[in-house]
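Course assignment 3, question 2. Fill in each field.
Student: A.L.
Task: Predict the tertiary structure for the chain below.
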Amino acid sequence: MPYDIVVEGLHKQYGRLHALKGVSFKVPRGSVYGLLGPNGAGKTTTIRILVGLIKPSGGKALIRGYRAGSILAKRYVGYAPERFSIAGSWRLLDFLVYIGRLYGMPRREAVEKALGLLDWVGLGSFEDERFAGLSAGMKRRLGLAQALMGDPSILVLDEPTEHLDALGRVELLGKIRSLAGEGRTVLFSTHVLAEAEQVVDRYAIIHRGRIVYEGSRGGSRSNRLARIEVDRPDALALALDAAGFNYSIQGNQFLVDTRGEEERVLRLILETGVRLLKYEAGLGITETFLRVVEGGVE
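Answer field:
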């Protein structure tokens, strides 16, 4: 299976702040991949590394085999940031035509492409509107349109449904799914679990700079999570790291992605010699997310 995006052991540090702590995941070509987590979890930092806005402190991120942020990688990627903003005097059509010209399109082709995308994102009757007069949701739609002007094979969307009303969210999620149906790869971040479950093929939960869970739509039964409490958490953390299990930790409590290998996790606990105080398996993805976000095991 070819992967359009490969992230391995990604770290990002700002002074004493560790924004990313060994983030790893792979996005299959032609799929929709959701990066899910609460605000401040590391979603936007990961995305900014992938599109070349910032450099990692360690690890690697590849786009179609090329270093993320390189010229060769950027030619594949369309990007819509979390806060899309341009000069308020820009008219929507003029701005998109400008983007098309930057991609080397003849003006007539750029106008045709821009008009089609404005219509596709629901802004077809606003081509002469200035950016300053747009609502927050309309700015979101324009951000998606500009990301598509270069006809990218990979789309990276940071919180694409933010500021949209309920109907707008449903429409945009449907469009994201249709883009994958065209053979494009879509990576998008969100803090709304229900959105991810509607459209993704695979997803990961990121919290405090770590991937704490990764699974597939409808496949959570084969990617079990376990809540574990032991008397010596440092010892168990070392064993889980060595065995390659993703986990989060708070105090002496762990949330572990067992990958369906519960017997192996239990064997690690026995071999480590720690005293098992609690073991709760089979947590659903929704329950897990709520525990992480609302103060459960972190």
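Instructor remarks: The mean pLDDT is 87. The first helix runs from residue 43 to 50.
Grade: pending
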